[in-house]
Task: inverse folding
């Protein structure tokens, strides 16, 4: 049904973010004068870099963590899925 598809789509999206972070992490910044702390990832990782980067803020990483836990709980019981990533 709809909720099962929603959980699956969120899990797949989170998998893509996870792979980008794990295989393309290049650096980060936590200087307050430069805005919210963030990490920088290279699209394509280091094996096939595209030259483009993605920045993930601390808030986004926290959102991903909550979304991952919601998927885990949703797989146990659909009623437990309570967080959709932004």
Result:
């Amino acid at each position: 049904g709809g909720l099962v598809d929603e959980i699956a789509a969120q899990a797949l999206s989170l998998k893509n973010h996870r792979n980008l972070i794990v295989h393309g992490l290049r650096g980060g910044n936590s200087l307050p004068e430069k805005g919210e702390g963030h990490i920088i990832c290279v699209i394509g990782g280091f094996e096939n870099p595209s030259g483009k980067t993605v920045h993930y803020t601390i808030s986004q990483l926290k959102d991903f963590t909550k979304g991952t836990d919601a998927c885990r709980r949703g797989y146990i019981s659909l009623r437990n899925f309570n967080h959709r990533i932004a």
